[in-house]
Amino acid sequence: MAKITLQNIQHSYLSDPKTDFDFALKHIDVVFEDGGAYALLGPSGCGKTTLLGIVSGLISPTSGRVLFDEQNVTHVDTIHRHIAQVFQFPVIYDTMTVFDNLAFPLRNRKVPEPDIKTRVLEVARMLDLEEGIHQRAASLTVDGKQKISLGRGLVREDVNVMMFDEPLTVIDQNMKWELRSKLKELHQNVRTTMIYVTHDQTEALTFADKVFVMYEGKVVQFGTPVELFEKPGHTFVGYFIGSPGMNILPCQISEEKVEFSGLPVKCDNQTKNLLGIQDGVMTTEIGVRPEYIRFANQGIPVKIRRVDDLGRHQLVHTEHEQHDIKLICPEDTPIPDGSAHIEFDAEHTFLYVNQWLASEDNSI
Amino acid sequence: MIIKTVKQTAWFFVVPVVLLVAFNALIPLMTVVNYAFQETFGDNVFFWEGLTWFEQVLNSDRFHDAFLRQIMFTSIILLIEVPLGIVIALSMPRKGPWVSVCLVLMALPLLIPWNVVGAMWNIFALPDIGLLGYTLNSIGIDYNFTQQPVSAWITTILMDVWHWTSLVVLLAYAGLSAIPEAYYQAAKIDGASRWAVFKWIQLPKMKRVLTIAILLRFMDSFMIYTELIVLTGGGPGNSTTLLSIDLVKLALGQFDLGPAAAMSLIYFFIVLLICWVFYTLMMKNEQQ
Predict the structure, then answer these.
(1) Which residues in chain A are contacts of B189 at CB distance < 8 A?
(2) Minimal Cα–Cα distance from A44 to chain B, Å?
(3) Which of A78, A83, A93 sits opposite B200 (nearest CB)?
(4) Which CATH superfamily includes the segment(s) A245-357?
(5) Do B193 and A85 touch (CB under 8 A)?
(6) Which residue from B minimizes the CA distance to A78?
């Protein structure tokens, strides 16, 4: 067990990286507290698997340090970091039995055979693998095999961190739920630090206490699932989390006012010195989640394009001067015909400057 | 009704293949069968002999000796080529510019015509002018493959290993390349030794291609003719007369068409039987 700290990690797969584009990871500063359940969430190619590789030691970072507790392990071998990892598709030793698969990491570490037996049976019980434990591992279903990969991490008692690299990708939909709750349950029992990498927001938000959202090699926000939803720190987080994602609309800033196509909009993070932002600013946008937009008697005029019935909600696609705005209404809300007016909930409308949430001091 | 129509159409499409197989395999084979049960003195006159030729071949010391030599030869080259091929495949680079260099070098021996391979090794090993033969003799090793059976055997085996290990290497390499990186990473995390990685990951994952490699090497070595007839011609004496060389001597040297046909069939069934047994065993293992 250990607290894991990544200090100013950069990584490039090129031998001679020059510009920012050459880096798969850019200035990553991250701390995983001991015993936490974390998720790294982001689209394909955002660098989350690379980051995982750096924690496990399978990849050596171009620059920066990796600390386990206070010890620098940046150049320590995978085996000496005492980590466990579950891969995207199950990795099992085909010719061994389930028991031998689970015993393999312990046998390699010269643990006495009686101890191995106790430990393996214990883990097999936790994972419901007791039945058929002496069968060939190759004969199991995919989810059974993935449990074995997981079990090979659980049998070891010296594990600092367990890492999951999109472990449910190849699992059937109905088994996904079961394995996911199993993981959550395991975390509560064993209290090992767990890092879960995924591009699926449901998996990340249900598994983890804290989520790192990654985008183009950077951690754009770190927070609880609720924080990520309620107050996205970056337009990407707003867009990526939630279904559908946040409405991101271009806006203009003038004289302490934020305007969306000429209409004033109130934002939660609107500051007094809006004019100060203007220097060097590329884009200003407002973000508001579909959940926090209502139909109103006056406000922003929109044309209604389509209504999707999502069961308990209705998803209304509207349009204001080529800008698509989506809103979610309860199922019994009457939807006006043709054109209507909408208003944004000021507490849940945010101003983004250069895609980052504008802050009091405009330091971004 | 519809199903029946479909079936008949399917048969129609199979006709070209059936004809092709008939002309290139079945009809020639039946000619051999024809000779195996009869005696002929030319002019298309045949006398029924029943199983006489088969009994004669199966009871002859000459066939027994050739068969034993054949088994010995095939066993030795399999024992050398398969492990050697795996070792070479394991030590070949997995990525980078050297991959193609290695692959081309490995493929070279396979591209040389078989009789050229025989001629090359013949000249290479000649004791008076060949590089190998001359060098060995000049450092004091008495080596003359044209006169000493042991030297002839060593040369034959060297030639076959040189010619065919590449095939095992290429197949094993293909098998190794197909193993996802995650297996090696998982093994690293599990603390597996190099040997454990080979035993539990690489070998099981190579099993299918190795089965094919062993089958191919078994069949080809059991039927080796071209390289050998150029290199030793079956000599000195009969020491390197393997089954195919013996068969040609019988059929074309002595013109004993009946016994030669019977021997051909026996030869054919031995290869078929061993392949079948081997394949069944490997596949049975697979299913467990």
Answers:
(1) 56, 78-79, 83-85, 105, 153
(2) 18
(3) A93
(4) Nucleic acid-binding proteins (2.40.50.140)
(5) no
(6) B189
Q: Is B179 helix (H, G, I), strand (E, B) or coil?
A: coil
Answer whether B190 sits within 8 Å of A104, measured CB to CB: yes
**Cβ proximity of A75 and A54 under 8 Å:** no
Cβ-nearest to B196 among A79, A108, A152: A108
Query: A96 — contact with chain B (CB < 8 Å)?
Result: yes
ipTM: 0.76
**Residue B85's pLDDT is what?**
94
> CB neighbours of B81 closer than 8 A, spacing ≥ 6?
B160, B161, B164, B165, B168, B217
pLDDT at A173: 82
One CATH from 1.10.1740.110, 3.40.190.10, 1.10.443.10, 1.10.3720.10 for B60-287: 1.10.3720.10
Return the amino acid letter for A346.
A
Q: Report the candidate in A32, A89, A23, A99 with the shortest Cα–Cα distance to residue A62.
A: A23
Q: Where are the alpha helices (DSSP H) in B149-225?
A: 149-177, 181-189, 194-197, 203-222
Could you say which DSSP state residue B154 is in? H
Q: Which residue has the tokens 């800008």?
A: A323
How many angstroms away from the CA of B91 is the closest CA of chain A? 21
Q: What is the pTM for the complete model shown?
A: 0.76
Superfamily name with CATH number, domain A4-230? P-loop containing nucleotide triphosphate hydrolases (3.40.50.300)
Residue-wise pLDDT for A34-58, tens only, equals: 888 899 888 888 888 888 888 888 8
